């Protein structure tokens, strides 16, 4: 059975025209109902006892009534186990809603025993919530809350199997991270850390530590999400001109903050200061490497409070040696703590801090409140925007849609990989189906959004939070159905992104949208259209797409380059509009080509453009 975003097992999927409540939009639907039912049952029992033939005195009846109400209240209040220290504001919220059990330093056996009687569990990073915990709870545990971002210490698969929602607190440290970025920016511009160390060593080197002004300079923010936007607000207050690069940021949001969105190359060549806030994805890993540093202004300074892996440490060390980069301030590292021989930690032109972005008293209290609210909302049966695990889809629905789940995610990912620098806001999803009147598209829509967002962010997207995350990123989802013949649930799907900018111009359709379409053959997803070209290729692995002149010899030349680099071709598809016009060639590759191989393909005569897409 396919595991998708987190809902209790009793949920049912209804058609879009059903009059019954849309329970799939409720991550814990039924939980609030259960609590209400407990109160109702207790009141009925109290009433039944009061109708016994032998009636007690009025005072005894009043006492029985009060006790009955109290019993009902206690029974309806969930038990919330807090296994690690949590800020007082968060605890106060929890205590107002349920019965809080603060039990720290539990052994695995003790945690399993506690889980048997707990409705919710709140942890930080030390508590390991293993499969054994969910097995011991046997469905009693309804929500696990992680006071922080990472959930590596929770067995998400086991949580899903037992219908337990897992939520985290990803936003409370936004301001703290932004303030730390600004602090490092100021310290870097004025050599604060170096001057402090020098003075404490008995030196007085005013001339050596002359800094540079922030006012009037340009700051380039890479990654214009929540933290990036907060950095922009504060940087403008310091007199900095702010630009940003984020292909998927909202133009409206940027304009409201007086920030100009620019291309990656323009940001590199324009700014004197760089502040990094992008997630670590396959597309951003090592993005600040030798090539990027060769394009920046000499004497630029770089601050990283995002993820260590976005910077190539060796390349940055060389850029510092060559005085291309004047200084760097790093709060994050690819491996934490960094090893003793790290090429940047011991340098006098680099400021380092031990991942302090979220380390303020206020941020820690904020995390406590955020996770308390998320857990309470889940127990109430309300939508949890920070759900990080996937629910089990009812078997009858899954049996029909399962072959198209992978297709939907793959189309979203493929379309996103073809987008150019300008980004997009409109997402068009078209379903060709014999059942256009009662097709429930929520699961497929969520998987398209998952394919899009997980290509460009570190967000975990699921059926619970897909629409909310899409909205928060400024995406507008437009769905349509096209009637077709047949008896299946779907014939094909298409995903189009509202942008005229593409890394591969052949991917643009007649409306100048990046467009891909696919279908399922023998339970495997296939791409059947790119832009206006009909193709037939498996939607998996590494694919080389080429737009070329329609003449002999080009396919052989590209194949020869790949063969000389020991890259096997697993499949090939060629499409053209008409004889002598442009054609596109799609080649399935056993592995990703090297930089030198890519340069040789670029040099093949007749190749107008090409790009490489991957399914992971």
Automatic annotation (TrEMBL):
Homotetramer. Keywords: Acetylation, Amino-acid biosynthesis, Chloroplast, NAD, Oxidoreductase, Phosphoprotein, Plastid, Serine biosynthesis, Transit peptide. This is D-3-phosphoglycerate dehydrogenase. Residues 182-357 form the D-isomer specific 2-hydroxyacid dehydrogenase NAD-binding domain. Pfam families: 2-Hacid_dh (PF00389), 2-Hacid_dh_C (PF02826), ACT (PF01842), PGDH_inter (PF19304). Residues 80-389 form the D-isomer specific 2-hydroxyacid dehydrogenase catalytic domain. Residues 542-579 form the ACT domain. It comes from the Eukaryota. It comes from Apatococcus lobatus. Pathway: Amino-acid biosynthesis; L-serine biosynthesis; L-serine from 3-phospho-D-glycerate: step 1/3.
């Amino acid at each position: 059975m396919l595991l998708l975003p987190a809902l209790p097992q009793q949920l049912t999927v209804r058609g879009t025209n059903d009059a019954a409540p849309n329970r799939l939009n409720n991550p814990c639907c039924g939980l609030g109902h259960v609590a209400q039912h407990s109160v109702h049952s207790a009141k009925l029992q109290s009433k039944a006892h009061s109708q016994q033939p032998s009636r007690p005195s009025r005072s005894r009846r009043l006492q029985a009534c009060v006790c009955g109400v109290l019993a009902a209240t206690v029974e309806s209040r969930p038990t919330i186990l807090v296994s690690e220290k949590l800020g007082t504001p968060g605890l106060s919220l929890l205590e107002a809603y349920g019965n809080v059990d603060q039990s720290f330093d539990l052994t695995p056996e003790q945690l399993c025993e506690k889980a048997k009687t707990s409705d919710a569990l709140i942890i930080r990073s030390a508590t390991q919530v293993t499969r054994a915990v969910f097995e011991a709870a046997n469905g009693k545990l309804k929500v696990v809350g992680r006071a922080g971002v990472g959930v590596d210490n929770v067995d998400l698969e086991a949580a899903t199997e037992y219908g337990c929602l897992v939520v985290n607190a990803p936003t409370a440290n936004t301001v703290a991270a932004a303030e730390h970025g600004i602090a490092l920016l100021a310290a870097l511009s004025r050599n604060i850390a170096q001057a402090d160390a020098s003075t404490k060593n008995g030196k007085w080197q005013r001339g050596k530590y002359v800094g540079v002004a922030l006012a009037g300079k340009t700051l380039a923010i890479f990654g214009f999400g929540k933290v990036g936007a907060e950095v922009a607000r504060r940087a403008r207050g310091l007199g900095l001109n702010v630009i940003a690069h984020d292909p998927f940021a909202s133009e409206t949001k940027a304009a409201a903050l007086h920030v100009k969105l620019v291309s990656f190359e323009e940001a590199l060549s324009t700014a004197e200061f760089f502040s990094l806030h992008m997630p670590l994805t396959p597309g951003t890993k090592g993005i600040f490497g030798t090539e990027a540093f060769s394009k920046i202004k000499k004497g630029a300074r770089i601050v990283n409070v995002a993820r260590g892996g976005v910077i190539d440490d060796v390349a940055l060390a060389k850029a510092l040696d060559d005085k291309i980069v004047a200084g760097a301030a790093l709060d994050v590292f690819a491996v934490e703590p960094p090893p003793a021989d790290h090429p940047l930690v011991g340098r006098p032109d680099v400021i380092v801090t031990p991942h302090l972005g979220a380390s303020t008293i206020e941020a820690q209290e904020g995390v406590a409140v955020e996770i308390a609210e998320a857990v309470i909302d889940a127990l109430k049966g309300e939508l949890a925007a920070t759900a990080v695990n996937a629910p089990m889809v009812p078997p009858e629905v899954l049996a029909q849609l399962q072959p198209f789940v992978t297709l939907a995610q793959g189309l979203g990912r493929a379309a996103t990989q073809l987008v150019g620098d300008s980004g997009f806001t409109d997402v068009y999803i078209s379903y060709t189906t014999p059942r256009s009147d009662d097709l429930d598209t929520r699961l497929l829509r969520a998987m398209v959004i998952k394919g899009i967002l997980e290509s460009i962010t570190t967000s975990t997207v699921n059926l619970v939070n897909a629409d909310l995350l899409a909205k928060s990123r400024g995406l507008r989802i437009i769905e349509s159905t096209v009637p077709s013949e047949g008896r299946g649930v779907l014939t094909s799907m298409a995903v189009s992104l509202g942008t005229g900018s593409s890394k591969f111009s052949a991917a643009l359709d007649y409306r100048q949208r990046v467009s891909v379409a696919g279908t399922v053959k023998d339970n495997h997803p296939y791409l059947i259209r790119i832009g206006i070209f009909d193709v037939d290729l498996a939607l998996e692995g590494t694919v080389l797409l080429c737009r070329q002149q329609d003449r002999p010899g080009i396919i052989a030349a590209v194949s020869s380059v790949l063969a000389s680099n020991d890259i096997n071709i697993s499949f090939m598809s060629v499409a053209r509009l008409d004889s002598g016009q442009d054609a596109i060639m799609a080649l399935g590759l056993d592995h990703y080509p090297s930089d030198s191989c890519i340069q040789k393909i670029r040099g093949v005569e007749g190749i107008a453009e090409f790009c490489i897409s991957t399914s992971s």
